[in-house]
Amino acid sequence: MKRTITQEETEHLFRVCENHDVSQYDLQIELVDHLASLIEQHWVEKPEDPFKYAVYKALQKFGSTGFQQVKQQKQRALTRKYNRILWHYLLEFYRWPKMLFTLALSLAVVSLFKIVPQLHWLFAIYILVLVCGNLVYHLRYKSITEANPISGKSFLLLNQLKHIQYFAMFLCYLPIGANLPFQLLEEQSISMPANFIVLLPVAFFIVSSTIVLFAYLFFIPQKIKEHFIQQFPEFVK
């Protein structure tokens, strides 16, 4: 009869992962599955060997840095995966028919430049939108960024979401720093050029930056949320 891993032995393999500094539950599942496969392969040849010896032989195949190498590979794979999703989403706004939406927004920003003579009002509007957007963001994604506290588990997938959140927060405040050159222009009594050819590229850049910000704040977190719920529905509040 083929010897297989028991539930108690599986729990021991999870503790082995934790002892090797792998605390993320989703990564532990993959490693435990791989270790169990190696152990059962060992038992095919030597079924009389005790479990702990089979674990020792499986760990030998990993090497001293095997766990960390798998962890780094998984992190890089997640980064590549969501970068591909991000770029596919962004490029849609520069293809037909969404490019019409991008152009329309750019023309609207040009009109806003002409309607609002003082730039500090534009940044006041931006900050208001930023505050409202942050409120919506936290209300919408609070449940997914917090795994069930009873479980006490962390997830590599949620760590990826946190990295994206930090970068998105950095992007949010870049326009505020960009306000400084315009303040200097106003102090020197130099007004914004009213030429459409000059304003359109500026407006296009602002719209493009906003699309990138939206992707980091909402689109990618939504994708991570969907993937997390599919894999671990029991950990979502």
Please characterize this protein's 3D structure.
- The chain is mainly alpha-helical and 237 residues long.
- It has 8 helices and no strands.
> How would you describe the shape?
elongated
**Overall number of strands:** 0
- The SS-based structural class is mainly alpha
What kind of assembly state do the chains in view correspond to? single chain
Which percent band covers the strand fraction?
A: under 5%
Q: What is the average of the pLDDT values?
A: 81
Provide the gyration radius in Å: 26 Å
* Strand/helix succession: HHHHHHHH
- Total of helices: 8
Biggest sheet overview: none
Summarize the amount of helix as a percent range.
Answer: over 70%
What's the N-to-C terminus distance? 42 Å
**Poorly predicted runs of 5 or more residues:** none
What can be said about this structure in brief?
This protein has eight helices and no strands.
Key descriptive features of the protein:
single chain, 237 residues, mainly alpha
How do the helices and strands line up, and which of them pair or pack?
Layout: H1 7-19, H2 25-45, H3 51-62, H4 66-91, H5 98-115, H6 119-145, H7 156-187, H8 196-231
Helix pairs in contact: 1-2, 2-3, 4-8, 5-8, 6-7, 7-8
